[in-house]
Write a structure and sequence with these properties.
Layout: H1 3-14, E1 18-19, E2 22-23, H2 30-46, E3 49-52, E4 58-62, E5 71-77, H3 90-105, E6 114-119, H4 132-137, H5 144-149, H6 158-165, E7 182-190, H7 195-199, E8 203-209, E9 211-220, E10 224-225, H8 237-254, E11 260-270, E12 276-277, E13 280-289, H9 292-312, E14 316-324, E15 328-329, H10 333-345, E16 349-354, H11 360-363, E17 368-374, H12 390-408
Parallel strand pairs: 5-6, 5-7, 7-17, 8-16
Antiparallel strand pairs: 1-2, 3-4, 4-6, 8-15, 8-17, 9-13, 9-14, 10-12, 11-13
Helix pairs in contact: 1-3, 3-12, 8-9, 10-12
Length: about 400
């Protein structure tokens, strides 16, 4: 594998949207379109068959003479969070492209076609919905109305952003993939935790991907004058919310060993002025786990605790389920082949689970899937300090190359 080529192209694309605070390439933005244009030129230079679907997912097919039947897919995404790192998503895309490029240049015999997939709008940063491109491919269109109504922080709707970029939102159903198109799919991604760093393993076989259950809690206290209202008579919505924040943390700690976690990720108070006791607090809670039963248990405890805390203050609360996705287990022949490839290459490896969502969890609805994690030397992701050592990138790329050869032979 040409590690120098991989590093060079990651660096070239990461310059698109680079600021002093990190990389910002939001879905359907100008920077996103520039990066996609650069990537298309790379694909054309390698000589792959290129196409896009109606949502902007990108595909690059390598089908040499004799390669027939269902396709082996690989890839990731190139959109980022605001001020993100340069490896999240992009590492998987360039490593996949490098593997296909090498197989093509070396004229390695494969019996099945290989296809790079670059998913659009994996991050939820701009429109509040994650892994949209792969959801659409898998036919998961239940949130169509929510997507249609979604807008970014500047008030630009997804419908408008797509139109500006040359796509029609109302055609996205045409991007649903036939169930038998892919034989398998494998995604390489940077580890977004400190787990592999602590275990000091360059790569990992991912056994499962956690799914989010997202909840909105509205606490109805009572707005009052901050100077003339005695403390004993207050129904301070922020105080109630603060107790719930700590309760969510403590409940989550009890589920840590069961691979479930909960985070209060956003908190708004109203009227939010200096001289008024907050009358309303709106909290957003992100609950994740790799087992649906465990997620539901944790949600039930949080819901009960919300009501109990509010009642103690003679206030009330409303709990709204915003979304609930299904965890994805990856114990199948693709994972077995990843592990076999590690052994063939004598690369040290471990097994892990992903607390973050990935496009693979949607692709698993239409084909057998596997994931490879590469050690994150900084232990942080969605941040400009995200870092991978050159030797770990090389090991990850070699492993993906070997896995694709084994899947396609």
């Amino acid at each position: 594998m040409n590690t120098a080529w991989i590093l060079e192209e990651i660096n070239n694309i990461s310059q698109i949207g680079m600021t002093v605070n990190g990389v910002t390439r939001l879905a359907f933005s100008e920077n996103d379109l520039k990066a996609r244009a650069y990537l298309k030129k790379l694909i054309d230079d390698i000589g792959l068959e290129y196409r896009e679907d109606t949502f902007g997912n990108m595909f690059a097919l390598y089908k040499p003479t004799g390669a027939e039947g269902q396709i082996i897919g690989t890839g990731s995404h190139i959109d980022t969070v605001p001020n993100g790192g340069k490896y999240d998503g992009l590492l998987g895309v360039i490593s996949s492209l490098a593997a296909i490029k090498t197989i093509k240049e070396k004229n390695i015999h494969i019996s099945r076609p290989l296809e790079l997939i670059v998913f659009q709008a994996e991050e939820s940063s701009r429109f509040g919905h994650s892994t949209m491109g792969s959801k659409i491919m898998a036919g998961k269109l239940d949130n169509f109305v929510q997507w249609e109504q979604s807008a970014d922080n500047n008030g630009i709707s997804l419908v408008e952003a797509m139109k500006e970029a040359g796509y029609n939102f109302y055609d996205i159903n045409k991007s649903v993939v036939e169930k038998d198109r892919y034989k398998a799919f494998v995604e390489l991604h940077i580890d977004q935790s400190k787990t592999m760093k602590y275990e000091d393993k360059p790569v990992a076989v991912v056994d499962g991907i956690a799914a989010p259950l997202r909840v909105k809690v509205t606490i109805h206290g009572e707005a009052a004058h901050s100077g003339s209202t005695a403390m004993r008579y207050r129904k301070d919505a922020l105080v109630i919310a603060s107790e719930l924040v700590l309760a969510v943390r403590n409940l989550s700690l009890a589920y840590d060993e069961r691979n479930a976690i909960a985070t209060v990720s956003k908190l708004d108070i109203f009227p939010s002025v200096m001289n008024v006791v907050p009358g309303t607090a709106v909290m957003y809670i992100d609950i994740r786990g790799i087992n649906s039963k465990t997620i539901d248990e944790l949600f039930g405890l949080i819901r009960a605790e919300s009501s109990k805390i509010a009642l103690r203050y003679k206030a009330s609360c409303e709990i709204e389920l915003l979304s609930s996705e299904k965890p994805c287990m990856l114990n199948n022949y693709v994972s077995d082949i990843i592990e076999k490839s590690c052994k063939e290459l004598k690369i040290p490896y471990m097994h892990t689970v992903s607390g973050a969502g990935h496009d693979t969890m949607n692709m698993a609805e239409i084909t057998e899937c596997g994931m490879i994690f590469v050690k994150n030397d900084s232990g942080v992701s969605h941040h400009q300090n995200e870092e991978i050592l050159k030797e770990d990138i090389e090991q990850g790329a070699r492993l993906l190359y070997q896995t694709l050869k084994n899947l396609a032979k």
